[in-house]
Fold this sequence. Notes:
alpha+beta
Amino acid sequence: MTDKSFPRHDYRHALLRDENTLRFLRLIVGLMLASSATYLAAALLFSDHDLLRSSGAVAAFASGVVALALIRKGRLEQGVQLLVWGVWLSVLLQVSLSNGLMSRSLIAFPIIIMLGGWLLTPRGTLALCLATLLAGAALAAGEQAGLLPLYASPSPPLLVWLAFSIYIVLSATLAFFIFRGFRRHHRTMHRLGDHLRAQFNTSSAREAELHLVMESVPVMLFHGDRDKRCLYANRSYRDFYAAGQKNLAGLSVREIIGAANYDGNPVEATLERVLAGERIAYRASRKSTNGDLRMLDIVMIPEPDAAGGTRGFFALFRDVTEEVRAEAALRSSEEKFTKVFHASPVAISISRMKDGLYLDVNDAFVEQFGWAREEMLGHSSVDIGLWPSRAERERWTAELSLAGRTRNRQTTLRTKAGALHTVIVSAERIVLGGEECIVGLVHDITERLQAETALQEREARLREAQRIGHFGSWELLIPSQRMSFSDELCRIYEIGQSGFGGTWQDLLGMVHPEDLPVMQEIWRKAGRGEGKHVLRHRIRMSDGRVKHLLVRFEVFRDANGHPVHALGTAQDVTEQVLAREEVQRLNDELEARVAARTAELTAANRELESFA
């Protein structure tokens, strides 16, 4: 049971509930009862005197019974008080009724005082000692005055031996338990000392680890007292505010950070607020010892004392200069992105990856497909019918999910009016606000494809016209001397595109040697002047045949007047030249025949005239 009469942490409270003490109390009470009963029985058997001389034993037995009952009920204080004072009174009664100061029971008083010194409070023990001294004085006075019922005849030796043995047993029991308790407490204290040493070593190791961590963290740490003087500053703090100093202890904050930082910022007012118990966090710029102006996140924490006030403060400084610059760069980048997004002539959309809902579209997207922005935001491309082929969209999203991006994928999309446009789609997966999104760029190539188709048709007609007219086209890049031939011109020269070297020198190598001087002279004149130029020259085939070409070209110049390239055509006029040569040959032959016939007729006419 719990005895509520003692404070929980009182020494006697712990002593009286100690296992050793409780065992002693139970044993000593048992011995008192047993020894009292034994003494009474021996007195009846071996003494002829009345039982008055055994009144002390009766009193000891009675007090032992009551003390045992109190102890069992958990009323330890009352039980101990009754035990000590009951034994003391029973011994005093025994001494008073037997031989007074000559009684052998006097040896019990030192034992009782030892018992009281162990179990009673200091005041109780002192009272017990004073009561014993006073009782001894009273016994002496009473015996001197003849007031005590002293017995002339001594007690039987066996009874004296029994009483003596009882005192010895009680003394031995008391000594055993007292020293047993001392030994137990000594072992406990020894174990506690070992535990404390181990805890101290562990604490020292942890303190060393903590110090190492505090010295190594990339955060500035400062510990100050109420006078705003440094108790501890880690290496990062020292490097920032006091480079080269290893110990800042004892210096004031103003001495450490400098007058410019201290007076130029509300440092004093902030420290007063923290020392008043307020936790403060803010961002401010501070200048280091090397003159760098850095942006710091500062947290000031009051250090409480046992009385509920503050005995100092802790300060944590984190250099966020690069973060601030990165945030500024990010904001600038976002602003640029927003401007580019809305001003871009390319249709751009931003949609959620998980469900395809449009988050934003730019003006070019709205203009290209016809839906208003409000009609698209919060809806997916499937909802508005942008993709005419669901299977094509699924293939596109599968590729995007797998690779994280798509590049220049040609597909067909539908406008709000229902027109189908051929487009090039490029997309990238990005994270916006912690959510996966898709940025899509759409280039409408419908008109370009139509233009390319028209161009291909015109080129086909041009090639057909060149084939029919036996003429081809060429281009010369004058600075690099590179040339390109049309397919028909390659057929005229009877070479493939891969067979032509593609340079001006390769062309000259195919020109008839007799025509080279004339051709080079015309090109020199063309390089000095402007306008269109015409020349005729021959080319040699690989089998020795000769072809005649009619060449028309024009030279184009840059802004500085330098010739940069020439465009021209070459027509195969071999058949015309050969036909003209054949006509000329026939004309010459006819004229020769006419002249011969004329000569014959003239001769015949002369002969006729001679006969006449």
